[in-house]
């Protein structure tokens, strides 16, 4: 079995999420994208309808093409809900539209004025890194058209070009500052929220996930990704004669016994497996994509290893054993029943003399 599901970052914590914060950021990007698409479609259609007779042919074709492209991207999102892909495609369309607008000059060479909204849209939809990359590409392209060789592009006055570039860079700067500190604040709040959730879902003594984690994190995760988990084996384990350890050696020894068993159990599982402290001296182990027969083998390995590894506290050597109940679940709707069945099998193991595996 593979080791390494623990410090510095336990693998089980990947199942702990902060959906509320992530959903808020998703909605921010979604509303920005939809607003951008609706405004773009409205403006483009208005420009074509009111000015097609006086616009150069290339500009009219560009506006019509952009109108239908943005509309198709919006419909694509509504059908697939693939927001990121829709934003990337829409951003590329707007990038090409900007280049062609600057190239053609627009009506009365007013194309440059339409670019002022792009930094805000880029950062609100793409985020700070991808948004910055898009704006750098736009800026380089505009500089090439304004100050590069003549390839048939519109001619702008020197004063107009310098004032536009100065204003555009200022807008980019303030949009960047705003997005940078927004993203930093969002990341900090996410980290704090995630740490709090991880703490609430972990056992303070062993660092294992606790019962709350199973109910609030693991079960919803399995519901959403059943093909990655099922069939799944469930093992319920309980330390034998735990009360005697507490009575004879003290509660500190009892705590060390709980940690000792947790350490041995963790050493025998894969990265995808989960060892949880279910309560008291009980542990609940989950083995995704594992049959009952394989789980019985794993439980026996843990049992044997524990029986051969006594707990040493100062001058005392305390024999350690545990009993195990094993069950298999093939349908997430029967997970609770499988846990109850594993608990029943554990009880049978206790009644049969302890230090054994029953499944």
TrEMBL record:
It catalyses: 2 GTP = 3',3'-c-di-GMP + 2 diphosphate. Its cofactor is Mg(2+). The chain crosses the membrane at residues 30-49, 55-76, 83-105, 134-152, 164-181. Keywords: Membrane, Transmembrane, Transmembrane helix. Residues 230-359 form the GGDEF domain. Pfam families: GGDEF, MASE6. One of its GO terms (molecular function) is diguanylate cyclase activity. It comes from the Bacteria. SMART domains: GGDEF. Its EC number is 2.7.7.65. This is diguanylate cyclase. It comes from Thalassotalea piscium.
């Amino acid at each position: 079995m593979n080791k390494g599901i623990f410090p510095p970052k336990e693998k089980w914590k990947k199942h702990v999420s902060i959906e509320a914060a992530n959903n808020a950021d998703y909605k921010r990007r979604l509303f920005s994208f939809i607003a951008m698409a609706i405004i773009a479609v409205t403006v483009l259609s208005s420009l074509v309808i009111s000015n097609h007779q006086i616009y150069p042919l290339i500009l009219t074709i560009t506006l019509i093409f952009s109108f239908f492209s943005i509309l198709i991207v919006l419909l694509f999102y509504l059908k697939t809900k693939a927001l990121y892909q829709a934003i990337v495609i829409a951003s590329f369309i707007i990038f090409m539209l900007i280049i062609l607008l600057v190239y053609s000059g627009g009506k009365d060479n007013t194309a440059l004025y339409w670019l002022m909204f792009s930094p805000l849209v880029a950062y609100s939809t793409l985020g700070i890194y991808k948004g910055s990359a898009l704006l750098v590409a736009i800026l380089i392209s505009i500089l090439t058209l304004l100050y590069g060789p003549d390839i048939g592009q519109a001619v702008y006055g020197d004063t107009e070009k310098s004032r536009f570039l100065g204003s555009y860079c200022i807008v980019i700067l303030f949009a960047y500052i705003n997005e940078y500190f927004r993203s930093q604040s969002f990341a900090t709040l996410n980290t704090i929220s995630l740490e709090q959730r991880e703490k609430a879902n972990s056992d303070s003594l062993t660092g294992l996930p606790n019962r709350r984690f199973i109910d609030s994190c693991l079960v919803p995760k399995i519901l959403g990704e059943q093909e990655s988990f099922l069939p799944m084996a469930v093992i319920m384990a309980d330390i034998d004669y735990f009360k005697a350890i507490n009575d004879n050696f003290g509660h500190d020894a009892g705590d060390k016994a709980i940690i000792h068993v947790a350490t041995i159990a963790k050493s025998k599982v894969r990265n995808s497996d989960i060892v949880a402290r279910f309560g008291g001296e009980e542990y609940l182990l989950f083995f995704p994509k594992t049959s009952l027969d394989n789980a019985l083998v794993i439980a026996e390995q843990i049992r044997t290893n524990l029986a051969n590894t006594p707990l040493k506290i100062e001058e005392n050597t305390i024999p350690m054993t545990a009993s195990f109940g094993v069950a298999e679940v093939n349908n997430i709707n029967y997970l609770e029943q499988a846990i109850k069945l594993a608990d029943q099998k554990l009880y049978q193991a206790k009644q049969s003399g302890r230090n054994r595996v029953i499944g």
